[in-house]
Write a structure and sequence with these properties.
The chain is about 20% helix and about 25% strand. It is α+β, with helices and mostly antiparallel strands.
C-alpha cells in the first residue's frame, strides 16, 4: 500500500513542527507540498531528512515554492513546467520526479489569478494563470499519451462547482470561479486521469480550505481548492482518498488541510 499526501503548507518553516508531527502520525510514502516559501538555503532539509524523507525542491524566496518528499530515492527531477514561457523572475509552481518503478509524482501550485487590489481591471495575473494551466494540460497529456503512471497533487486554485464553496454568489467574479478558469480545469480533468477525492467523496460541500479571516473554520465556510489526480492506468489501484480536516483545527496551522489517497501495490 502506498500513501500519498498533498498539502499547501503556507510556509514550510512556519508549519515545520506540525509537518513533522503529521509525517510521524501518518507515515506517508510521498508528500507533495505547495507554497513552501523557501529556497535551497532556507528549506529545512536536515529536519525533513531526519524524519526519513528525501526532498526534491523548486523553491522561491517568500512566495510560491513546491516540493516532493519521498521515503525512497527519486530520479529525473524536473523543477520547471515544460513549454511554459515564465515571467522574470520565474515563479516556482511545478515540481516532478520519478520513482525507480516508473511512477511520476508531480506537485503543482496553480496561480491564483486575481488582480491586484489597487487595480481590479488588471488581467495580467489571470492571463498568466490560464497560460500556466494550458502548459500543465499539455504536459499531463503528453505523459498520459506515453502511458506513464502519473500522480498529480496540488492546490489548483479553482472552485470547480458551485457546491465546492460555502457561498458561490460571493465568488462569481473571483478568478477561482471564472468560466475561463473552470473550462481550463475541465480540460485537465478530461484527460485520462481520475480525481481521487471526487471518486471517494462525491458529496457536495467537501472542503479543503478555510480562510484565516472571519471565523471561516469554526463556521465551516470553506472551499475545495486541493486535489490529487492519478492517471487512469492507476485508477484500479486506488483504495481510498480523504481530507485530513483535523489538521486545519490545530494551532499555527495552514489554511489548507492535507488531502491524501491510498494506492494498493
Amino acid at each position: 500500500m502506498q500513501k500519498i499526501i498533498s498539502w499547501n503548507v503556507a510556509s514550510v518553516r512556519a508549519r515545520l513542527p506540525l509537518l513533522l508531527d503529521f509525517l510521524k502520525e501518518e507515515q506517508p510514502d510521498i508528500v507533495l507540498l505547495q507554497e513552501v516559501k523557501a529556497t535551497e538555503e532556507t528549506f529545512p532539509f536536515i529536519d525533513i531528512q531526519a524524519a526519513g524523507y528525501q526532498v526534491i525542491l523548486s523553491g522561491q524566496r517568500g512566495y510560491n515554492g513546491v516540493a516532493i518528499l519521498s521515503r525512497e530515492s527519486l530520479q529525473n527531477p524536473l523543477i520547471k513546467l515544460p513549454d511554459f514561457q515564465d515571467t522574470t523572475p520565474p515563479q516556482a509552481r511545478f515540481c516532478q520526479a520519478e520513482s525507480s518503478d516508473g511512477l511520476i509524482y508531480i506537485s503543482v501550485y496553480v496561480p491564483n489569478g486575481n488582480p491586484p487590489e489597487k487595480d481590479p481591471s488588471d488581467t495580467t495575473k489571470l492571463t498568466y494563470k490560464l497560460h500556466w494551466m494550458d502548459a500543465l494540460i499539455k504536459h499531463i497529456k503528453y505523459l498520459t499519451q506515453s502511458d506513464k503512471k502519473v500522480i498529480i497533487g496540488g492546490d489548483f486554485n479553482v472552485i470547480e462547482k458551485d457546491t465546492d464553496v460555502y457561498n458561490p454568489a460571493a465568488y462569481k467574479t473571483n478568478a477561482l470561479m471564472l468560466p475561463s478558469v473552470r473550462e481550463s480545469f475541465s480540460r485537465l480533468s478530461g484527460l485520462p486521469i481520475t480525481n481521487a477525492l471526487r471518486l471517494f467523496h462525491p458529496e457536495p460541500h467537501t472542503y479543503s480550505f478555510w480562510d484565516f479571516q472571519k471565523g471561516a473554520w469554526p463556521k465551516n465556510n470553506g472551499m475545495l481548492l486541493d486535489a490529487i489526480f492519478v492517471s487512469d492506468n492507476l485508477k484500479d489501484s486506488l483504495t481510498d482518498a480523504t481530507i485530513h480536516k483535523h489538521i486545519r483545527g490545530k494551532p499555527k496551522t495552514s489554511d489548507h488541510a492535507p488531502v491524501g489517497c491510498l494506492l494498493s501495490d
